[in-house]
Structure formats: structure tokens, C-alpha cells
Amino acid sequence: MGLEEQNAFQQRLFWAALRAMQLGIKIDPTAKADITQELDAAMDTTKVWIETVLGHTINLRSPKQMLTLFYTDLAQKVVLTRAKPGQPPRPTTDDEALDTIAKREPLLKPLCHKILHWRSLATFRDNFMEARLDEEGRMGSSFNICGTETYRFSSSENAFGVGMNLQYIPHPGSRSLIKALERGETLPNVKRMFVPDEGYTFFEEDLDRAEFYVVVWEADDKELKLALHKGIDIHCFTACDLYQIKGIPPEELTETHANYKEHRARIGGKRDYAKRIVHALDNTGTAKTVSATLGTTLQEAQRFIDNWFGAHPGIPRWHARVKTQLGVGKIPCVSNAFGYKRFYFDRHDTILGNAAAWIPQSTVACVINRAWVNLCEQLPEVQVLLQVHDSLGGQFKTADTTRLLPRINELSLITVPYPDPLVIPISIKTSPVSWGDCH
Questions:
Q1: Its pTM surpasses 0.85
Q2: Is 325 helix (H, G, I), strand (E, B) or coil?
């Protein structure tokens, strides 16, 4: 796709986004009040636990008090912020730092986890519950088409102070929810307060494992392509490669197979670890990255790398092609299958990981944006109200459900123009009650 075509598409996308901003999303005031009460109670309970353990009160929002707690009172080895151009590293107690301390010092793990949980609750409280609604009780946020370098949207309150950053809303695979589950905590389903208009049904469509599909096609990995085509549980499949689990035929890792539950139980928690390891390695993660992510030794992390790249050599070959592409021309640049380009002005040795991550992220954004435009232009009775990450949400008249669902699915299947064309599957969930009740 040439620059002229890209610009023309952006204009079409503008009208789709404008329509969503004008419509806004209805908010159920009762559900909002209930969630607010739930958050307040959970924050109070968590803070009481923390202060009881510490033996004194503390302002959990104060960076100064948190630094004193961990690096003076508890005498922990200082964790520094990541180095940025023009900004020297400095001591931090951000979420990543507390994760590091929790892995390093088992005695402090419960305390770190409770503080992290309180922060998650506070983020939900500050962002979702305090967002201002318009006079009709709707959230009419502003979408920024050019808000990110990956062509995903960013969002914020609009020019009238209404709305919020909708990208904060967690999806089932989001880092905040996964981390909460790992800590044994739960977070409120804030999507329950987003409801359809009377006589309408809310829908959410998600691209299925979208970035992984793109990496597989970039690497032209025929084994992984076949596994995806057959509907094999890809995270169980990759766990077998990473952990060298033998004796499980790949074709028995589909949910409909009689032996699937037995195999899934044997793989156990390695499945979730495999998902995180593969994501890190697909983005050119190193043994140090994997070790920090999982809390493993460098030797174990290197073994994962050797196992994964040994089983799927197309992935490191793709990384090598990205590196070669970055070295062509005066300004480092990469492109995705749609012809969109990203230029880099940092040092060459620091941009490979960003470039490898940009390709699948931007490709997926191109897919979801094209699905949105298709629905807006060809199925105007479907109101797309928001785009969050790799999904679209909206509503249609409940009476038209049977007629519209197949058409929504058809218009959302976008072909990614690889030599072996890729169509990323989607799942559509619906509910006449709320976004949070979609299934």
C-alpha cells in the first residue's frame, strides 16, 4: 500500500472514529456506584493489612515514603529506573521494582504483592470511577488516530472534559489481570458499568492471538502455521517445545480431543509461563529478559531460548532480516505487510527489539482498523463505540442479532497481504446487559 492509499484510508478511519466519539457509551449509574463501593472497601482492607504488618501508617501514594520504606527501613538493594536518553537511572519503587524485590526477597513477597494490589485498585478507582460523563450519562471519550507509533488508537477525555483513556480498561489477557491472578487477588469487572442502549445488545469482537499469528507468518514457520490452522492449543504446544515435554501428540492438544484435559493437566502451569516466554523471545528478548520476567536463573532462561529457537529457527531468521532491514539506508526503518513504515533515530544497537515488536503490533492495528472501517461503511446499523487494543466494542438492535452477527464476522476478517495470505480469526461475544456480561 502506497502513501496515497494510506492517507486515503486514514481519512475513512477518521469518520469511523468521529462517529464513535459522537455516540459515546451509556454508563449504568447503579453499577458504577456498586463498583466504586467495592473498590473503596477492597482498598481499605488492603491498606489495613499493609499498615498492620508495618506497624505504622503510610501514604501508599507517596514515592518518597515508599523509597524510605524499601531502601532505608527494609534495607533492600536499590532498584533503578531503566536508562533513558538524557535521564540518568534513579531509585524507584514502581511496579516492576516491587516485582523484582518480591522475587529477590521471599519474606517481603506478601508485602510487595499487597502494595501492588492496592495500586491496581487505586488505578481502577481513579481512572474509571472518577471519569466525567456527559449530560446524558454517557462516556464520550476522544480517540486519537495517530496516538501511537503502532497505529493503535490512544484515547483521553474529550475537549469538554468528558471521558477517559479507554485503553486502561483491562481485557482477559491484560498484564494487570494476569498479575492480580498470580498474586491470588481479583479486580472488579469494571466493564459491567458500560451498557447498551435500550433495545440494543452490546458486542465485543477480539482478534485471536493476533500478534502471535503475525510473528508465525513473518517467520514462515510451517509447523506453527499448521498448528494454528488445526486449532491446536498453541500455548500447550509451545510449552511442550520450551520444556521438552515428550509423548504428547500435537493433534491431541485440541480442546475437542478426548485426551486434551489429561495433557493440559500434565502441562499445568507451564502453559502460562510458555505464553510469556514466547512473547518475550518473539520480541528478541534475551536470557536476562526471560530470567527477569519469570524469576528463573540465566542458565534456565538460556535453555528456553535454545529450545524455542532450535524448534523454530524461522523466528531468529526473521529477527536477522529485521536487523538487516534496519541497516539499509541512512535512517533505520522497518515496514509491515501493509506497507506502513516506522523510522528510528536512536542508536542501531538499541532498536532491534522495538522494531521486532512494532511489526506485529502495527500489523494487528491495521487489521482491527480495517474491520472498523468495514463495519462503519458497510453495516451502519452496527454502532462501533470503542477500540481497545486489539478489539472493537459496540452495539446493535437486539432484534437484528441473528442477521447481523454473521455479517459482522464476515466484514471483520481482513486479509494480511503476505505471500501466504493471513486471515486472523476473531471471536465475537454479546450481551444485552453490559459489556462485562458479554460471552
A1: yes
A2: helix
Mean pLDDT of the 407-419 span: 97
Strand partners, 194: 27
The reply to whether 141 falls in a domain is no
Query: Is pLDDT above 80 for 183?
Result: no
Q: Residue 276's domain spans which residues? A: 222-311
Low-confidence winner among 112-121, 200-209, 276-285, 288-297 (lowest mean pLDDT): 288-297
Report the number of distinct structural domains present in the chain: 2
- In whole angstroms, what is the distance from residue 18 CA to residue 376 CA? 11
Residue 45: phi and psi, rounded to 5, are: -60, -45
Is the CB of residue 126 less than 8 Å from the CB of residue 192? no
**Helix 29-54 / helix 109-124 crossing angle, nearest 10 deg:** 150
Last residue of a domain, one of 294, 311, 328: 311
Does residue 121 form part of some domain? yes
CA distance 191 to 393: 11
Domain boundary among 276, 311, 346: 311
Answer positive or negative: Cα dihedral of 310, 315, 321, 326.
Answer: negative
- Reported in sequence order, the residue ranges of 208-307 that DSSP labels E, i.e. its strands, are none
C-alpha to C-alpha distance for 284 and 287, rounded to whole angstroms:
10
Ranges of H-type helices in 59-174: 63-68, 95-104, 109-124
Question: Among candidates 382, 344, 380, 388, which has minimal Cα distance to 364?
Answer: 388
What integer pLDDT is reported at residue 297 of this predicted model?
A: 87
Taking CA atoms, 343 is separated from 3, 146, 358, 380, in Å, by 15, 15, 11, 36
Angle between helices 287-294 and 298-311 (to 10 degrees): 120
CA–CA gap between residue 82 and residue 90 (Å, rounded): 8
Q: Is residue 431 part of a domain?
A: no
Report which of residues 61 and 279 the model is more confident about. 61
Asked whether residue 45 is assigned to any structural domain, the reply reads yes
Grouping H, G, I as helix, E, B as strand and the rest as coil, residue 211 is helix
pLDDT reported for residue 262? 95
**Mean pLDDT of the region 273-289:** 86
Provide the CATH number for the domain around residue 109: 1.20.1060.10
Q: Residue length, the chain? A: 439
Helix%, strand%, coil% for the chain, nearest 5: 55, 15, 30
Would you place residue 349 in the very low, low, confident or very high pLDDT band (cuts 50, 70, 90)? low
C-alpha to C-alpha distance for 282 and 290, rounded to whole angstroms: 11
Give the integer Cα–Cα distance in Å for 389 and 205: 11
